[in-house]
Amino acid sequence: MGLSIGARPYPFLMHPSRTAFLVIDMQRDFLEPGGFGAALGNDIGQLRTAIMPIKLMLDACRATNMMVIHTREGHRPDLSDLSAAKHARGRFATRIGDAGPMGRILVRGAAGHEIIPELAAQPGEPVIDKPGKGAFYATDLEAILRGRGITQLIIAGVTTEVCVHTTLREANDRGFECLVLEDGTASYFPEFHRAALDMACAQDGIFGWVAPASAVIAALREGTES
Fold it and tell me: Hey, which of 35, 161, 187, 217 would disulfide with 193, CB 3.0 to 4.6 Å?
């Protein structure tokens, strides 16, 4: 029997043993001063609103032994997995691979590429390094999920309309049932955040469900106590 979570567009029936909490790109380069996000002129405070809901969700998942997976967007030091189109996008003065206050921007091994300390992965939690926006592209995420018998994903992270939504769509096409945390996701642009959440559950759940972290946490606790 699953756990019923109050969600849009209708309750989500979660089976914790077949569910993974997927935390997308909560990296220093996106969420801290001096990182890539700030260098592009964005208000990193908008993204930091997702930290506490994700932290509480991580605590609940770890307490109930639900699978947790983290992702990081970034590239090899030689940038051999960085397409010319992605590198050139936007014509910004600061680009991927350039030197920044936390090392080379979005390059694996640099301090800015790491997950923020508040949400750091614990031993045994897979960390997926991805060169693209979606977590399934050019990674072994699907193999890990299939190997663990995972059929449902609770998705959080940044940004809602880019890496979270791309991953949601990839997962939907692969047959995973997905719930997006409305307060555990964030965007530099609040209007994009709201629209992306609405799109996720439009047309009676075209890509999945949307719910606050508190609803999922409450269901997990109730399931543990029952």
Answer: 187
Of 198, 137, 202, the C-alpha closest to 163 is: 137
Q: Is 163 a catalytic residue?
A: yes
Asked if 78 is an active-site residue, the reply is no
Question: Are residues 100 and 14 in contact, defined by beta-carbon separation less than 8 angstroms?
Answer: no
Cβ atoms 171, 138 nearer than 8 A = no
Total of domains in the chain: 1
Active site residue 130: yes
Cα gap 97→226, rounded to integer Å: 51
Q: Which domain holds residue 101?
A: 3-225
Does residue 101 have a cis peptide bond before it, meaning omega lies within 30 degrees of 0? no
Q: What is the CATH number of the domain that holds 105?
A: 3.40.50.850
Q: What is the CA radius of gyration of the chain?
A: 17
Q: Which of 25, 29, 178, 201 is catalytic?
A: 25
Joined together, the tokens standing for residue 10 give 């209708």
Q: DSSP letters along 98-135, please?
A: SEEBTEETTBTTSGGGSBPGGGPPPTT--EEEESSSSS
Catalytic residue chosen out of the listed positions 61, 133, 163, 178: 163
pTM of the predicted model as reported, rounded to 2 decimal places:
0.97
Catalytic residue among 130, 133, 178, 201: 130
